[in-house]
Amino acid sequence: MTTNTDLNNLQPSSVWAHFATLCAIPRPSYHEAALIEHLIAWANAHGIESFIDGAGNLILKKPASPGGESMPGVVLQGHLDMVCQANAGTVHDFERDAIDAVVRDGWVVAEGTTLGADNGIGVALALAVLEEPGLAHPPLEVLLTVNEESGMDGARGLAPGTLQGKTLINLDTEEWGHFYLGCAGGVDVEVRHDCARDNVPADYALVRFEVSGLRGGHSGIDIHLVRGNAIKLLAEALHDLSSHTDLRLVEMKGGTARNAIPREAYAVCALPAVIAASLDEWVQHRHESWKQRYAGSDANVSFVCRHDDTPPGMSVSPTEQERLLAFLDTAASGVSRVSEDFPGVTDTSSNLGVVAFEKGAFKATFKVRSLHDARADALADKLAAHAASYGLQAWKDGAYPGWTPNPSSRLLALCQRVYTAQFGQPAGLQVIHAGLECGLLAASHPHLDMISFGPDIRGAHAPGEKVEIESVARCWQLLKAVLQELAKV
């Protein structure tokens, strides 16, 4: 096992040195300032021009190497922030603590938290290019955006004309051996309701139901794997139990990010004391049913109830509770359409990512994605209408466009030639059911010819996220070769 301090011993050393820095400096969405300050100081020390645009993005510029001055400029692009997820029982403050990365069996992994290889490795690759001695390259711009994981605010706010380059290489995909030439667009659906509450009868007892042990994952690229959604499972269980006894919902929380499949959820409920004391058999039956249902994808699912001696207080009124649980139980979450153009790729999906009910205030957030913007909009409208049918307020927010594939891209053809020359076989071509920033960048800079590639990353947006060391080295080899070719075209 190797700790963060040994990441610099990995090859390519410059890439891993930058990644070690990214692990050391906390960078949740909206908290990238310390990292940006560090990178500006680094750029100044290396004679690299840097500036922050009106959206807060960091842009680094380096002139072409000798002989490449007349070539069209190239933009290398990634995002600075990371998804922050930790396992229950893992104490980690993402705004203060470094990421604890270890090396195991050829992978760099964070075992109790997310690693931030999404998109820290892409950022590290771009930074390493800027300091690579003797590398032939055209004029370079490195665009490092902010708040990508929280709503793509940086890319959304990039002013037209900010970038001078003619081609853009996005370094934010997670499957080595493929060039990505398109991605899904997305939109959030926000659901809110202020609930009427009643006093819980004195002879009721509190019980805390907990769903945990799920793998979670990226709400786009992992949505087709049919992993358990902790919020949906908890709502299913509570809705069933409420049909058999007088269940009173006091509190409920699940998920931490709209773009991550929820791994954990809990609810505090009040039940007649005699019922509360005899729940174990029902809980065990439900648990065994889920273990069978998810035997191939989430075999470690856990469902427990814990008894609480705290005197009951207030709960949601029975009528409104029925509406809330029915809505959560029946709301669409998962794959709704498979692509007809790209075999094995999800076309349209939704993810119930976050839910909270506390002191009468209910909120839920869905992430909707589609390779076709109109389909994402239609599914979001359907979810909002579904919420309205239960008397809940719902609206769409944070829409961003997809990236339409261009199979005749000159950059793609060049990258294919370089890949085949370097590795002896052609790369695969793919679109990704995730929200790359390319769609927004194409909207503000329509002249850009774009492509995306990256190393093998597994478990993005979930604890245990890992990146394969060998594929990072291959990405580095490919990126340098592509830039050298672009310097002489």
TrEMBL record:
Gene3D superfamilies: Zn peptidases. Its EC number is 3.4.13.18. GO terms for molecular function: metal ion binding; metallodipeptidase activity. The keyword Zinc applies. It catalyses: Hydrolysis of dipeptides, preferentially hydrophobic dipeptides including prolyl amino acids. This is Cytosol non-specific dipeptidase. Its cofactor is Co(2+); Zn(2+). Pfam families: M20_dimer, Peptidase_M20. Coiled coil: none annotated. It comes from the Bacteria. GO terms for cellular component: cytosol.
